[in-house]
Amino acid sequence: MVMFLMIYVFFMLYYNKFTIKYIMQIRELNLKELYTVYDVVVQHFSELSYKEFEDIIYDMRHMEYKMLGVMEGEELLCYAGVAIQTSLKHKRHLKVFEIVLDKKSETKYLQEMKSYLEDYAKMGMCNGVIYT
């Protein structure tokens, strides 16, 4: 019976009778994923070349700039560039420099990212989230 089940599952996968859905995840992106991030960012900042984008990201690393993304498989659905900062006005806070949604994605991913940023700020012992 187990062997029959294994053969059936293999057969279904082989002939693609059902699709495997990717699970949405929110995670920190690394520098190897800059092209993926750029593909989403350029949808909103069309005048930005890849070279300028890459230079800006590298310049912001000194402030512990983090690239966060809502991912589904290898596809980036929403991107946020953030850093934990301290100021006299806001004390310790999470500053969101940019938050962009892939134009073909649903707005629910933007809400998921905003919710995640609230939690990220709490984990970083921040007083709140500041969107610029």
Q: What do these coordinates show?
A:
With 132 residues, the chain is an alpha+beta fold. The chain has a single domain, classed as Aminopeptidase (3-Layer(aba) Sandwich). It contains 4 helices and 5 strands, in the order αβααβββαβ. Strands 1-2-3-4-5 form a 5-stranded mixed sheet, with helices on both faces. Strand 4, helix 4 and strand 5 form a beta-alpha-beta unit. The protein is globular. The termini are far apart.
Record keyword descriptors for this entry.
single chain; 132 residues; alpha+beta; Aminopeptidase; 5-stranded mixed β-sheet; 36% helix; 30% strand; globular
Write the layout of secondary structure elements.
Layout: H1 2-14, E1 24-29, H2 34-41, H3 50-60, E2 66-72, E3 75-87, E4 91-101, H4 108-123, E5 129-131
> What does the average pLDDT come to?
89
Global geometry: globular
CATH topology: Aminopeptidase
Radius of gyration equals: 19 Å
Question: How many strands?
Answer: 5
Which CATH architecture is right? Answer: 3-Layer(aba) Sandwich
When the domains are counted, the total is 1
CATH superfamily: Gcn5-related N-acetyltransferase (GNAT)
Gap between N and C termini: 60 Å
CATH class: Alpha Beta
What characterizes the major β-sheet?
Answer: 5 strands, mixed
Poorly predicted parts: none
**How does the helix and strand content classify structurally?**
alpha+beta
> Given the structure, what is the number of helices?
4
How much helicity do the residues have? 25-40%
Q: So what's the oligomer here?
A: single chain
- Approximately what portion of the residues adopt beta-strand conformation? 25-35%
Q: Widest sheet: strand order?
A: 1-2-3-4-5
SSE succession: HEHHEEEHE
